[in-house]
Structures
1.
Amino acid sequence: MIISEKKEETRNQVKEWKRQGFRVGLVPTMGYLHEGHQSLMEAAKRENDKVAVSVFVNPTQFGPNEDFASYPRDFEKDAALCEKTGVDLVFHPDAGEMYGEGFCTYVDMEGLTKELCGKSRPIHFRGVQTVVSKLFHIIPADKAYFGQKDAQQLAVIKRMACDMDMDIEIVGCPIVREADGLAKSSRNTYLNAEERQAALVLSRSLAAGRKLAEAGERDASKVKKRIEEVLGEEELARTDYVEIVDFADITPIENFAEAKKGEVLCAIAVYIGKTRLIDNFIFQLQKG
Ligand code: AMP
């Protein structure tokens, strides 16, 4: 497995693979890898000849009062997991390599990024789009893999790739959870034992909302209310948002039937103590 800290070396390697006719899959991450990330690597392995993983805690997607400095990092462990999973290249630049002197170009979007996480994290998606665009140029892969765990991010990246005619297929992968339902996240490491238990309210509230939808409820405000009720039962939880939107363009809907491609995203962000966690489900409307 190649470990590269340099953009040029990485791009040359990937170009060489392309020249040899290999299909290349890319998995962008911020490291502190877990089974969620691993599932993306495995999907990339199944569908490509070579797999590249980037490990980079991207400063431009963190707000001034967010957890950039304390974000967990353990590159040796990450590299070992990549090696074990059969990854071919790990790109692990530092911030200076990614954002050279005089850097002042950003990628931004008019729609999709203002709702949900965009409300409390106003510069987050601009940073995500910028770094992902850069990664697509450094690693000119055929396909890039993103988790539904960050559903808004997945929708934003799909939109960006389409709008900017990027020559790459964006593949969404299902949420990987702990046995008790908590969505796996590098940030789960911030939780103490009591908070870890309290964090189960996220998946529990979504399960209650999904149950209503599966029973035929199509009024978004009723599903939202049910999710909020369950979240309200947990003392350690403080809700940032509960939103029901059209997954296609992240616009709010009043009725599930309004979802243009039949996919309704029910997404939540909840503080457990000081840790902000997100989770969601996508409800597919039956056609016809
Ligand atoms: P991160 O390192 O948190 O920026 O995540 C890198 C990629 O892994 C993103 O596409 C995430 O959506 C994805 N990911 C993170 N956690 C999970 C999970 N529990 N299940 C599936 N994908 C995940």
2.
Amino acid sequence: MPSGHQIIPRDQHCISRNNISENALKVLYRLKNAGFEAYLVGGGVRDLLLGGHPKDFDIATSAHPEEVNALFRNSRLIGRRFRLVHVLFGREMIEVATFRAAPQDPDHAQHQQSATGQLLKDNVYGNLDEDALRRDFTINALYYSIEDFTVRDFANGLEDLNKRQIQLIGDPESRYQEDPVRMLRAVRFAAKLDFDIAVETAEPLYRLGDLLDHIPSARLFDESQKIFTSGHAETSWRLLQHYGLVAHLFPFFPSQPNEHATQLIQQAMRNTDARIQAGKHIAPSFLFAILLWHPVREEMQKHQDEGLPPMQALQKASHHIIDQQIRTISVPRRFTTAMREMWDLQFKLPRRHGNRAERLVSHPRFRAAYDFLLLREESGEIEPGLGEWWTLYQEADEVERKKMVSELSPNPPGRKKRRRPKKKPDSQQH
Ligand code: ATP
Ligand code: MG
């Protein structure tokens, strides 16, 4: 890999201090004034050069983490595998990393590697050139200097920005071995930036998916969240499937999903992307619930075939699928609870008699379950109709709602008759 150091003067690039967050500038200047080197790096530089709006700003400096920490009252040291400083300004967080050396360097024996070549610790400090070469992709190794406002390019990142390609620095296979999460990052950046993955960087993706099996489940949760909230989940998912990486994230996901599952996921990802683009919130549990829905249904069917009643079969299936899934991606408990509730509600939404509809509509997970139902109808898994009923019900006033319920067919199929009359007559209920 040719790696001459190019310095692009201020008048030959488009990065202006006006486009950099004030807080990031504060950190850069304070580091500089304390006598350290300080650069903006990573997504901040890359996205500004592409004319976009970086979602966050990362800083690289010659100051050691403790020195950075001492300079900022509002900062904290984080990370074990990779020691960093987070400087907090209200809701904005600026990440400050000390220059690191490339792990191949035999003089630095402190890098620890696992049997598969994975880097376990990466805390060997280095200089700016070294720091550039241990970064993942060429377009992520561009530095903006606060000293003279130049852009520093050590790995032909500018050329790749122009070619619109994602290219690992160095030998792709060993870079993936050092850190297999880079495979997911390659996909995420390709989707987000609408770049191609360079041939040599793409080729190992087909072969090295197994390496993801060694990544801690908490890290895979973080990375999957980044993918799902990137605003480009649909494309990312397509690429993950293309490179055979899905099975390493979602072990239950069939390699040949049926038409309904494919439709459901595609539409859910599309809606998620639209919400993100519109600046709306998305619940992390929703896409996980969607992705695992067909596996849960299949597992549930198995239990029903063995004679379990539907709700028990569902419970058992949900428990099993979640229990297995969190070994790969540690979805936090509060989200798995929400997923179970969404699945559960799929079987409750058809039952609307008496005051059930009213109770369902005020369930904290109703809205998500309703969106879920609409997507199932849209995917062709179930007949349309129920979704629309719920749409109208939500828009209706109290009188209309009562009427809607009373107009339902009197005995939903398969319901047992109530054995005992209600204890309280309706008039006494408030
Ligand atoms: P974005 O923040 O938009 O997702 P980013 O490129 O800033 O993109 P971060 O995860 O914030 O990504 O990381 C900041 C920088 O740190 C990257 O640009 C890259 O230079 C470096 N980096 C991050 N993760 C890795 C990794 N796994 N291996 C090597 N370098 C990495
Ligand atoms: Mg970043």
3.
Amino acid sequence: MNNNLLMKSVQSINTVGPRRAASLQRIGIFTVGDLLYHFPRRYEDRTRLSPAGACAQGGIATVRGTVLASQDLKPKPGLVITKLAVHDGSGVFYAVWFNQPFIKKILTPGKNVYITGKVDRSYGATQLAVEDYEVDDGSDSLSAGRLVPIYALTERLNQRQMRVLIKTALTVLNNQINDFLPGEIIEKYHLPRVERALCQAHFPDREKEAAAARKRFIFEELFLFQLVLAVRKRDITRSEKNHRYVPEGNLLRLYQKNLPFQLTGGQRKVWEEISADLDRPRPLHRLLQGDVGAGKTVISTMTMLRAVESGLQAALMAPTEILAEQHYLGLRRDLAAIGVEIGLLTGATRKKERELLLARLATGELKLVVGTHALLQGDVSFQKLGLVVVDEQHRFGVRQRAALGHKGNLPDTLVMTATPIPRTLALTLYGDLDISIIDELPPGRNPVKTYAVLPRALPKALSLIREQVNLGRQAYIVCPLVEESEKIDLQAAVDLSVDLAANDFKDFQVGLLHGRMKSVEKEEIMLRFRRGDIKVLVSTTVIEVGVDIPNATVMIIMDADRFGLAQLHQLRGRVGRSERQSYCILVANPKTDEGRARLRAMTRTSDGFVLAEEDLRLRGPGEFHGTRQSGLPEFKIADLLRDGKILQIAREEAQALAQRDPYFKSSENRALLAEMKARFGEGIDISGA
Ligand code: ADP
Ligand code: MG
């Protein structure tokens, strides 16, 4: 944020000391601006105060009254119930707290309070199990008698404290910040000015005001983002690369000749687009989209071969070691036949090997390298890096994507993703990239037969694996692993693999793969699975992206209701990679309607776009961080799927502005540029000011 007040540390607020500042940092709040942009997750309507006697049993109510007396009850060891008698003007009710005896020191007799809590009426008395309270000191209340903001919290900070903190920050502003949005735009779209919007977003007078404020911040966020894209696009279209490609030659002909299949129509179409781009003077900057299994790898290989033929170097970056290694093995196999060498660089590469590899890249002796983000390390340099390919790009930040490019001099950049994003949205989201889509799967692919079954049907699923293994096939069993319960989850996977190896599958090899294993162990397991020695691989989601072992035809997903739809779709994409019929068994006993609906969607369709839409529908527009699972970048307040309309407007306005004043020379636009840098500056090159 460009305004000095907003840039100040939260510690400039007098109720924030080092301890509280540290707590706030945990949720990304460093400055006063960060705090004010920590928007409520929702509002609770506490506009209507009711007398305690009129509250509905079981509901949540807010009551105002005067404290009469307090009492501690200790019904059993470790439990203290603090009970306050409160008079609300028409009668007495009781407010109860559990294990918070200090309350009676704060709410002493005679004090006026607002109490919000769950209503319990019995024997003619009304009791509120307190969820929230506030002392009524005669000033405007933050927690009662209004729409009350509910925030995402951090440790040692409760809702009430957060409200007070934000209120204090708002008071500090005191009408002194400038709006960086151009006045014209504010008027055209009737957006509230920043100061008012901040007040209304936190403590709205009415629902309508809250909505208008939110709209402003959504617009603001998307507008700035679109401006950044416009600037990048401007720089790319105006730049000229200083490497050239020679026409397609023998390497490509041979490579294609050796392929055991013909390119699909979709592949040929995108290849033409990419190839034509390479021949242009400006760098290629393209997103290659294609559902799981569409065959993006072949296209990236052909692109890299054109670079090699032209005497240029090319680097392919993948998000996981397993995937990098897979690409390396596949490329080595395919390229050995045509005499092209390739290197592998990951975090697991040994020191000696690494040194040699780096030396050969620096001299240009080695043309092709595959790796993880290890490629981004400072000492990795190229003699002439002409092409950068990023696989499963949604797994990387914009920053990392750009970083590899900086190792060359305006290299061509191809990024690939299997995240199904509707085209209009993709255009808007990746406004700085051209887009190619492989819109068909290779021929002969049957949709994966998908079933959702209860845990007690697991033996049947296991016998399906046995059948397939007897036919020479292989199988995955995927176990969920979430951070909060990582230890337990990991143990479940280990136990399952041990149990299967000792019992059901004792006559063939069962392997175990998870993220906590050492790189060499992972490699070893993948190698044995790839070779077909291991028949059944019990794994956590480390196999989620990109893994390609066409001989695997069964996947069992345990506790499938714990996965999001996008993730289930990615996982299932690991089977059905050949002409053989494949199966996916979702084992779960879903506890929620949403969980059930997800599984049903999976059994009904294998179309990534349909699933993406279903995902959006299920999670509903209220979800703040709804984009996480679909692999789209995360915004603070905007939701790209929900806010499509605002996104469109933001894009149009951003493009118009970038046309009018491409270098942000006007004083009004300079403020905008400063804000863009502050928010998206890291890793994004916003030159031109
Ligand atoms: P993704 O697009 O998910 O990265 P891959 O590139 O890994 O997919 O390809 C999936 C599988 O399909 C691979 O085993 C690949 O060899 C195979 N494949 C790719 N193109 C074709 C094609 N035109 N015909 C048949 N099989 C193909
Ligand atoms: Mg892939």
4.
Amino acid sequence: MKLLVTGGAGFIGSNFVHYILKTYPDYEVINLDALTYAGNLENLKELEGNPRHRFVKGDICDADLVDKLAKEVDIIVHFAAESHVDRSILDSAAFVRTNVIGTHTLLEAAKKAGNLRFHHVSTDEVFGSLGPQDAPFSEVTPYDPRSPYSASKAGSDHLVRAYFHTHNLPVTISNCSNNYGPYHFPEKLIPLVITNLMEGKKIPVYGDGLQVRDWLHVEDHCRAIDTIIHKGTIGETYCVGGNGEKTNIEIVKTILGLLCRDESWIEYVEDRKGHDKRYAINFDKIKNELGFEPQITFEQGIEKTVAWFQANESWWKNIKSGDYEKYYQKQYKK
Ligand code: NAD
Ligand code: TYD
């Protein structure tokens, strides 16, 4: 199989590219990534010289480019997105452009290439926010996005489904909960907490810290997508979760414990605007129909993740100091 992976220099996309090339020795990947602030070629360093991986620096909104690449592959697995809620609160233009227009450009390319298989990677945030007693999100939960990020992802999900119903495009969609693991960009909660503590900085906890997220190790997310692209039913959506509901303050305290620090490192700061209170996922459908279940518990995964950040200090220090931009500009100067 030859895959066009979009956003494969980002957090989940790069984990997926590594996972696919390791799992399937005869598969090939074209990796299309614009290398925004979140894209980092250091995530792909191990693949330098690998003939089964071709990196293309480019924008998913560039119709000529994606039309050309779509003709070369059997499936598009679409990760590329603007992904950080806080950035979408400050300025949402790039979110609408990449997440909505970029997805539309790819869908058109898939249609023109001859009904090319298309897997769309989405988020549980499209379903909105749960109260403490509400049942977890599932495939039948009505959409209710509440941040510019989740609204733009919801728009992209609707377009993907519309191309299935209108044009018979062979699509699948996954809506996954919060991921964590290697190559996680250190503006998100878990890598921010780990790296701040390693740098001797305090941890900013928004509001009361009692918001709940369901955390899934990125390797399990990659396995779920693998399962869907090989065994999923065309036109279907699959919710993916980790059975790992935790409050933010629980996450922070777990990491403080692993790094032998006390709670004086916590700094409660102003709350995020429109902060979603709780996300939780019922993943019975993918479990019962496709046999997928997460394999990494939160306790195992968070320990492994802290160890990864300890062993890869130069990776995140380059990002925090801005050096990673110099690295990729040098490598892929036009
Ligand atoms: P990320 O921000 O780490 O990576 C995004 C990648 O997309 C970057 O490499 C960036 O350079 C690239 N990109 C951005 N705009 C582009 C454009 N116009 N053209 C080409 N490439 C572009 O994001 P992530 O956390 O790896 O998330 C990947 C996908 O998974 C997103 O679609 C996100 O909505 C979804 N998702 C993320 C999570 C999570 O917890 N991180 C959970 C569920 C779903
Ligand atoms: P984040 O990692 O940005 O993911 P998302 O908003 O997509 O769920 O944030 C996870 C949770 O952690 C969210 O409730 C916001 C909170 N948070 C903090 O309390 N402090 C921080 O510095 C960050 C980045 C997030």
